[in-house]
Specification:
heterodimer; A: about 120 residues; mainly beta; seven-stranded mixed sheet; four-stranded antiparallel sheet; globular; B: about 110 residues; six-stranded mixed sheet; three-stranded antiparallel sheet; about 45% strand
Chain lengths: ~120, ~110
């Protein structure tokens, strides 16, 4: 059974760069037919898609975050990563990684999520 | 505000059927399949419906999805107390080079 596990910094200062990694267990991040996404949820609010990466390395990003986001793939470590630059308090959220079975927003496997708080 | 519009809340009694709506536009629901998620407090969302009306393995047939034009619906029949949760719709949006959009979520209360 495929499992995803997020890791990274929990408490950060404004203007820093957020870095998170999603380790893929029980399967391969190179599996065809899937894309790998980052999704976030501010406290008490709804879900926001950040972006995704395909096994080819191509990426798609949320237009509202595109200028600050980079998603990368490391097939040797079977993981994918998120970098978000110039963070503010508005970036405080639970960050989830997820597998998309369709490439159209059908996230069938999720990590448990990791809370990132941005505060000075 | 979210690109996809959902009612903020819904309620029903056990055993009843409830429907949650999701309204979008021609660039998302109007031209792409819709997906539905259930999220219990403090947990990751779970995929309930994909490709508008398909259930992943393990999701009971009490859950069904449909779409008409630029609106979609999730129906839950035989409502159970454990169905009390937040429900989200999602779809691919073809605008601006393409991206996934979510609804704002509907809090379902089982009375």
């Amino acid at each position: 059974q495929l499992q995803l596990q997020e890791s990274g910094s929990g408490l950060m200062n404004p203007l820093q760069t957020l870095s998170l990694t999603c380790a893929v267990g029980g399967g391969s991040v190179s599996s065809g037919g899937y894309s790998w996404s980052w999704i976030r949820q501010p406290p008490g609010k709804g879900l926001e898609w950040i972006g995704c990466i395909f096994q080819t390395g191509s990426t798609d990003y949320n237009p509202s975050l595109k200028s600050r986001v980079t998603i990368s793939l490391d097939t040797s470590k079977n993981q994918f990563s998120l970098k978000l630059t110039s963070i503010t308090a508005a970036d405080t959220a639970v960050y989830f990684c997820a597998r998309d079975r369709s490439g159209l927003g059908a996230f069938d496997i999720w990590g448990q999520g990791t809370m990132v708080t941005v505060s000075s | 505000q979210s690109v996809l519009t959902q009612p903020p809340s819904a309620s029903a009694t056990p055993g009843q059927r409830v429907t949650i709506s999701c309204s979008g536009s021609s660039s998302n629901i109007g031209s792409n399949p819709v997906n539905w998620y259930r999220q219990l407090p403090g947990t990751a969302p779970k995929l309930l419906i994909y490709s508008t009306n398909q259930r992943p393995s393990g999701v009971p047939d009490r859950f069904s999805g449909s779409k008409s034009g630029t609106s979609a619906s999730l129906a839950i029949s035989g409502l159970q107390s454990e169905d009390e949760a937040d429900y989200y719709c999602a779809a691919w949006d073809d605008s601006l080079n393409g991206h996934v959009v979510f609804g704002g979520g509907t809090k379902l209360t089982v009375l």
